[in-house]
Specification:
The complex is a heterodimer. By secondary structure, chain A is α/β, with parallel strands linked by helices. Helices cover about 30% and strands about 20% of the residues of chain A. Chain A has a single domain, classed as Aldolase class I (TIM Barrel, Alpha-Beta Barrel). Chain A has an eight-stranded parallel β-sheet, covered by helices on one side. A four-stranded antiparallel β-sheet of chain A has the order 5-6-14-11, with no helix packed on it. A two-stranded antiparallel ribbon of chain A has the order 1-2. In chain A, helix 3 packs parallel to helix 4 and helix 6 runs parallel beside helix 7. Chain B is of the alpha/beta class. Chain B folds into two domains: about 90 residues, Beta Barrel (Elongation Factor Tu (Ef-tu), domain 3), CATH 2.40.30.10; about 110 residues, Rossmann fold (3-Layer(aba) Sandwich), CATH 3.40.50. In chain B, a hairpin with an 8-residue loop joins strand 3 and strand 4. The chains are: A alpha/beta, B alpha/beta. Chains A and B meet through strand 5, strand 6 and helix 8 of A and strand 13 of B.
Chain lengths: ~300, ~240
C-alpha cells in the first residue's frame, strides 16, 4: 500500500489531485460522469463580486499541444455562488472545496474573500492575481511584487481560511512575486496561470479570439510550469500547488518532485472529462513504478 | 454525455468540401435531433464538434465541412479507423413544440441536423416542409435523402443554378406550425425576421469542452447567459436577443 495523502495548509487531502479553476465549473458536469469525491478537492470557477459575462466570443482557439482561452472570468458573482452554487454542490461533493477568487481592485479581492470566510464548505481560498487592476492602469496585480503583496495582506485580513496566491507566469521573475506573497502572509502559492498567446485565422487575416489574445494551457506549458514551481520552491517555505499542462499521474509526480505539495489539472479536463479520475486511479501504480511509498517523501525531492 | 470509441465505415465527399462520415458505436447517449458529438483527432488538442445528421441503431452519420486544419485532417480518415467521441452533447430540438406542420430550414452545413429532425417528425405523423438553402448547385447535399423521407422539399440556391433562385426566406410556405432552423447566423437572423410562428434556432460557436465546463461558448439571451454546448445549441425564438 502506498500513501497518497498530503496536507495542504493544514487540511488533509486523500490525494493531491485537484481540478483547476475554470476547467471544472462547480463540478456538476463531472459529477454526472463519476463520483468526484475521489478527488483531493477541486478549485471552482473564479468568482468576482459582480456577475460577469466575460469577453466576446470566439474565446477558444486550438494551439499546438494545448489551447487558448479568453473567457474573461465569466461567473455569476459572489452572491449567486453563496446562495445557489455552494448549496447545490453539497449534493455531489462532500469534502472541503477550494474557492477561486478574482478581483479588479484590492477592495474587491478582500470583500469576496470575506464573504467566503463564513462558508463552511470552503477549505481554501485561491486568489487569482492575473487580472488587470482597474485602479492601476489595467496592469495585472500579478506582475508587480508590491501589488501582489498588497492583495495578499488585504485578503489575509479578510479571512481566517488558508490563502493560496495563484500567480501569473507572464512575469520576468516569478520567484520575486512568490516571495512577496509569502512575506505578506500567503499560506501557499499556486502556479501557473495561463501564458498569454494568440492565433490568427489566415482566411480572415485577423486574430481568432475576439479578445485578440488569450491564455495558453495544456501539455505545451508543462515544462514551463514545472520550471517555475522549481524556482518558487527554492525561495518560499509555504506549500506550493503546481499546475500547468498536467495530464497524467507521472506528470503529477514530476510536479511534486519540483516542489508541489498538490497538483492541479486544468485543460486536460476539457478534452478528457475523466482525466482527473484516471490520474487519481493511476497514481498508486505510478508511485510503485518509481519506488515511492509516500507522496510526502517526494515533495521538492528533485532539488 | 458518454465517451466511446466508434469505428469508421465510410468517409466520403458529398461536395467539394462537405463530407459524410459514417460510424458505428454506442449511440445511446443521443436523445434528440440537433445534438452533436465531439471528435478527438490525432495531432489536435481540442475535439471537433460535429452535429448529428442521422442515427440508426449503432450507426451514426455526421456531416462536416472542411473549414480548418482539424476538419481538413478528418477528410483523410479511412474506414476501419477508430475515433474517440463524446456523444449526446447539447439539448437538440424539442419535437413537442413543432406542431402538425413544422417548417425545417437548413443552410449549407446547417442542412444535416435537419435530416434526423425531419425523419423523427415524419415518423411521428407530422407534415414536415424542408427548405434547403445553398449558394450554388455544386453545394447541394442530401436533397434525394430528404425526398426519400417523404418531406415537402424546397431547394434554393443564391445563383439559381438549382431549385428556386434566392434565399431560404424566398421559399417560405404560406402556412406552418413552427420553424426549426440551422445555418449561418445571417440566415438565422433572416429566418427569425421572416417567420411569424414560434421557432427553434441552432447556433454554432467555437467550443472548448462541449459539455458545459469551460464557459468558452457562452452567449447572452433574454434569460441570461447560456452555454451553446449544453443549454444549446438550439435556442427558442423567444430567448434570442435579436
Amino acid at each position: 500500500m502506498v500513501n497518497t495523502k498530503v496536507s495542504l495548509c493544514g487540511i488533509e487531502l486523500d490525494n493531491p489531485i485537484i481540478p483547476a479553476s475554470g476547467t471544472f465549473g462547480y463540478g456538476a458536469e463531472f459529477a454526472k460522469l463519476y463520483d468526484i469525491d475521489c478527488l483531493g478537492t477541486f478549485s471552482f470557477k473564479g468568482t468576482t463580486r459582480e456577475p460577469r459575462f466575460g469577453n466576446p466570443t470566439p474565446r477558444i482557439a486550438e494551439a499546438p499541444g494545448g489551447m487558448l482561452n479568453s473567457v474573461g472570468l465569466q461567473n455569476p458573482g459572489i452572491d449567486h455562488v453563496i446562495e445557489h452554487e455552494l448549496p447545490e454542490m453539497k449534493r455531489y461533493f462532500h469534502k472541503p472545496v477550494m474557492a477561486n477568487v478574482s478581483g479588479f481592485s484590492v477592495e474587491e479581492f478582500a470583500e469576496v474573500c470575506g464573504r467566503l470566510d463564513t462558508c463552511e464548505q470552503v477549505g481554501w481560498l485561491e486568489v487569482n492575481i492575473s487580472c488587470p487592476n482597474v485602479h492601476g492602469g489595467g496592469m495585472s496585480f500579478g506582475t508587480d511584487a508590491k501589488m501582489a503583496a498588497r492583495v495578499t495582506s488585504a485578503v489575509k485580513r479578510a479571512t481566517r481560511k488558508p490563502v493560496l496566491m495563484k500567480l501569473s507566469p507572464n512575469v520576468t521573475d516569478i520567484a520575486e512575486i512568490a516571495r512577496a506573497c509569502a512575506d505578506a502572509g500567503a499560506d501557499g502559492i499556486s502556479l501557473i496561470n495561463t501564458l498569454m498567446g494568440m492565433r490568427i485565422d489566415p482566411r480572415r487575416r485577423a486574430p481568432i479570439l475576439a479578445n485578440r489574445t488569450g491564455g495558453l494551457s495544456g501539455g505545451a506549458v508543462f515544462p514551463i510550469a514545472l520550471r517555475m514551481v522549481w524556482q518558487v520552491y527554492e525561495v518560499v517555505d509555504v506549500p506550493i500547488v503546481g499546475l500547468g499542462g498536467v495530464r497524467s499521474a507521472e506528470d503529477a509526480i514530476e510536479m511534486m518532485l519540483a516542489g508541489a505539495t498538490a497538483v492541479e489539472v486544468g485543460a486536460e479536463n476539457l478534452v478528457n472529462p475523466f482525466a482527473c479520475r484516471n490520474i487519481v486511479n493511476e497514481l498508486p501504480a505510478a508511485m510503485e513504478k518509481y519506488g515511492i511509498r509516500d507522496l510526502n517523501e517526494i515533495i521538492g525531492g528533485a532539488h | 454525455m458518454r465517451q466511446g470509441i466508434f469505428e469508421i465505415f465510410s468517409n466520403r465527399a458529398l461536395t467539394a468540401n462537405v463530407y459524410e462520415l459514417k460510424l458505428r458505436g454506442d449511440t445511446g447517449a443521443f436523445t434528440a435531433p440537433g445534438q452533436f458529438a465531439q471528435i478527438r483527432l490525432d495531432g489536435f488538442f481540442l475535439r471537433r464538434p460535429i452535429s448529428v445528421c442521422d442515427l440508426d441503431g449503432d450507426a451514426l452519420t455526421l456531416i462536416y465541412k472542411a473549414v480548418g486544419r482539424g476538419t481538413e485532417a478528418m477528410t483523410k480518415l479511412a474506414p476501419g479507423a477508430k475515433l474517440d467521441l463524446l456523444t449526446g452533447l447539447g439539448n437538440g430540438y424539442d419535437l413537442s413544440l413543432c406542431g402538425d406542420a413544422p417548417l425545417l430550414i437548413g443552410g449549407g452545413a446547417g442542412v444535416p441536423p435537419m435530416y434526423l429532425l425531419a425523419k423523427r417528425l415524419i415518423a411521428a405523423g407530422r407534415r414536415a416542409t424542408a427548405i434547403l438553402g445553398f449558394n450554388t448547385a455544386a453545394e447541394v447535399l442530401y436533397e434525394d435523402e430528404f425526398h426519400a423521407l417523404g418531406a415537402d422539399v424546397r431547394v434554393t440556391t443564391v445563383d439559381g443554378s438549382r431549385g428556386a433562385k434566392g434565399f431560404v426566406t424566398d421559399a417560405l410556405p404560406e402556412a406552418y406550425s413552427h420553424v426549426c432552423a440551422c445555418g449561418p447566423e445571417p440566415m438565422l437572423r433572416a429566418v427569425y425576421r421572416a417567420t411569424n410562428t414560434s421557432g427553434q434556432f441552432s447556433f454554432e460557436e467555437r467550443m472548448g469542452c462541449g459539455f458545459g465546463a469551460c464557459m468558452g461558448c457562452s452567449c447572452e439571451t433574454k434569460y441570461g447567459s447560456k452555454r451553446i454546448c449544453v443549454d444549446g445549441p438550439v435556442l427558442k425564438k423567444e430567448e434570442i436577443l435579436w
